[in-house]
Design brief:
mainly alpha; 5 helices; 110 residues; elongated; 0% strand
């Protein structure tokens, strides 16, 4: 799914009740989760590039959830920021076992 479609879907999802928005975020990022869970060989340039693209896509999606439609200025996290943090936390928890190994391999290789 391309970035424009991700953005449009997240725009719709952001307006759902929090529990549904978190599930919607996970569904939108399902392709990224599948790529992570299929296993990435970060010992190759192609594997490192794929990991980078996946992480950037997830972070862009989370940024859209946080910033788009945000009207509150000032101190403290906005409701959108709280929702975005719930979305990414749930997503990372669901993919942690698949994400931890390639990240650990990269850190140890540095």
């Amino acid at each position: 799914v391309d970035a424009a479609l991700h953005g449009a879907l997240l725009g719709i999802t952001r307006n759902l009740p929090a529990d549904q928005a978190v599930m919607g975020f996970a569904r939108i990022c399902e392709g990224s989760a599948s790529s992570l869970k299929s296993g990435l060989d970060v010992s190759t340039e192609a594997g490192r590039q794929m990991l980078h693209r996946i992480l950037c896509r997830i972070l862009r999606c989370d940024s859209v959830m946080e910033e788009a439609g945000s009207s509150q200025q000032g101190l403290g996290p906005t409701p959108e920021a709280r929702l975005a943090s719930q979305c990414i936390a749930r997503f990372l928890l669901s993919c942690w076992t698949a994400l931890a190994l390639p990240c650990q391999q990269l850190l140890l290789a540095a």
